[in-house]
Amino acid sequence: MRVFVSVVDLGSQSAAADHLDLSRPVVSRYLAELEDWVGARLMHRTTRKLSLTAAGSEILPRCRQMLELSSDMQAAVSEPDEAPRGLLRISVSTSFGQAQLADAMAAYVKRFPGVSIDLQMLDRTVNLVDERIDLAIRTSNDLDPNLIARRLTVCRSLICASPAYLLEHPAPQQVEDLRLHNCLTHSYFGKSLWHFEQAGEQVSVPVQGNISANEASTLLRAAMAGAGIAMLPSYQAHVHIRRGELVRLLPHAEPRQMNMYAVYASRKHMPAALRSMLDFLVVRFPQEPEWDEGL
């Protein structure tokens, strides 16, 4: 089962052989034995690529569950690991990395000095296996079911503008008023439509503006410079609102919330460093984060 899952995740028998430190013939034999045991062909094999059969698609999630159970059983009877050590490669968005995760990682390595952190600030979804990422922080309400995730906290958004912008433009009183403003938009999230919950109802408002960007930090700087109204994550905007550098608008209308997760590819042989990092993040970023207090 471990061979089968590795072949699927890595895309080829040769890559799985290298990853598992097995020969290619052994990988082929194990796949054949699994198919004999199941009683069905699991993969279409061609010289160019591998693809799952209908039976393979049915068996894959069950294999993952059994491998996870096996790892849990081993962990339950094993001796506690020594202090975590080694390198962790972590993928995170630029805005969350700068606003929250950098400080969190500083606190983590003080507690676990044997661990080194390689932060990859990427405003795109990475392939954990191909890019050798141990852990990714993702904001989503629709995660890839093939990944394992631990829920961290909630990501709220706030509608904000600078005092300078509001001196020249009347503040919107209803979400529909956003149509009349220069809205600074994210290239991938709500570029032309912002979604709200207002008085228990879902409301969507078309927006447009002359600045868009593929990461929130740029929109934050543009909003503070008076360019327009932005929808910004509260983990980033809260400090600027408290300083008076930004003004929160439309507090009665809540932009669509999303969940934040720590995701990783497999529980198999989880290093102590990754296990300790997951436990640390769950405590550091609770369901009700401190940056939302008073907002």
Question: How would you describe this protein?
Answer:
There is one protein chain. With 295 residues, the protein is of the alpha/beta class. It folds into three domains: 1-77, Arc Repressor Mutant, subunit A (Orthogonal Bundle), CATH 1.10.10; 86-155 and 258-292, D-Maltodextrin-Binding Protein, domain 2 (3-Layer(aba) Sandwich), CATH 3.40.190.10; 157-255, D-Maltodextrin-Binding Protein, domain 2 (3-Layer(aba) Sandwich), CATH 3.40.190. It contains nine helices and 15 strands. A five-stranded mixed sheet has the order 4-3-5-15-6, with helices on one face. A five-stranded mixed sheet has the order 11-8-12-7-13. A three-stranded antiparallel sheet has the order 10-9-14, with no helix packed on it. The model has no long low-confidence stretch (mean pLDDT 89). InterPro entries: LysR-type_TF_proteobact-type (IPR058163), LysR_HTH_N (IPR000847), LysR_subst-bd (IPR005119), WH-like_DNA-bd_sf (IPR036388), WH_DNA-bd_sf (IPR036390).
Please count the beta strands (DSSP E, at least 2 residues each): 15
Radius of gyration based on Cα positions = 23 Å
**CATH-assigned homologous superfamily of the largest domain:** Periplasmic binding protein-like II
Residue share in helices? 25-40%
Largest sheet, spatial ordering of strands: 4-3-5-15-6
Provide the domain count. Answer: 3
- Class computed from helices, strands and strand pairing: alpha/beta
Percent strand equals 25-35%
Task: Sum up the structure in keywords.
single chain, 295 residues, alpha/beta, Arc Repressor Mutant, subunit A, D-Maltodextrin-Binding Protein, domain 2, 3 domains, 5-stranded mixed β-sheet, 9 helices, 38% helix
